[in-house]
Amino acid sequence: MEKAGIKFSNHVFNGIILTSILAAANSSMYLTTRTLFSLSVEKKFFKPFKKVTENGNPIYCLLVGAVIVTFTISISYFGDERVYEWLVAFSGTAGLISWIGILFSHHRFRKAYIYQGFYLDDLPFKSKLFPFGNYFSFFCLTFIVLSQGYTTGIFRNFTAVGFIKAYFGVMLFLILYLSYKLYFKTKIVGLSEMDLLTDSYNQLGFVSERFEKTSFKEKLLSFIF
Q: Which of 27, 38, 169, 215 has its CA 20 to 30 A from that of 59?
């Protein structure tokens, strides 16, 4: 950009990077806060974290999220660069695994919804590419997770540190998941056992989408958006 005569290009790139960092920090705080709050409500985390303000904000969860985000970002400026690289690798893997879990949950929800006698047309949103979109995304995300070691060069010059760095997130996820399943002796919920009514949009008083959209314009907008 400097060769093109744009002298302030460095400021433009700094602004883009800063915006990306702030967006990532904001997203991390939201996800951390809501995850801790949900775990506390389900009695899988400390009880005080259920406390909310008058506006419904989980204050203790928000504080913990702010501390974690601040600590993580500070490492990149004041800490060891290798520690920061490990955190980045771990957070990236955690995000990919989360989306794999979302795809699996969505697939199971659709199957259970039909199995229990509900109509897909009643849903406010339906994935147009189901189930191909789920299968394709699941394959791509799984491939990315498993091939992370290739990008670090461990297959060409294998080192234990490089292997752990590439797959630490996967190993930690498996340890936590299997430990939880073994300790609480839980099982995968069957299609007929899934609770699809509690806090559903119908139970909360919303009109069924099948009867709400009648005109061509409404159906067209629903299809596009």
A: 169
**Crossing angle between the packed helical segments 59-78 and 9-41, to the nearest 10 degrees:** 140
Residue 56 located in a structural domain: yes
Residue (of 83, 76, 91) closest to 31 by Cα position: 91
**Residue that is written with structure tokens 């008083």 in the block:** 205
Round to whole Å and give the CA distance between 116 and 105.
16
Q: Which amino acid is at 13?
A: F
- Per-residue pLDDT reduced to its tens digit, 127-184: 888 899 999 999 999 998 888 877 666 667 777 777 777 888 899 899 989 998 998 8
pLDDT tens readout for residues 99-118: 999 999 999 999 999 999 98
Instruction: Answer yes or no: is 201 within a domain.
Output: no
Instruction: Mark 68-79 as b/e (b = at least 16 C-beta within 10 Å).
Output: ebeebbebeeee
Please give the single-letter amino acid code of residue 91.
S
The verdict on residue 214 lying in a domain is no
Looking from the CA of 193 toward its CB, the CA atoms found within 13 Å total 4
Task: Write the DSSP assignment of 42-97 as a string of letters.
Answer: TTSS-GGGG---TTS--HHHHHHHHHHHHHHHHHHHHS-HHHHHHHHHHHHHHHHH
Neighbours of 141 (CB within 10 A): 18
Asked whether residue 44 is assigned to any structural domain, the reply reads: yes
Q: For residues 156 and 150, is the Cβ–Cβ distance under 8 A?
A: no
What's the domain range around 16?
1-79
Beta strands in 69-225 (DSSP E): none
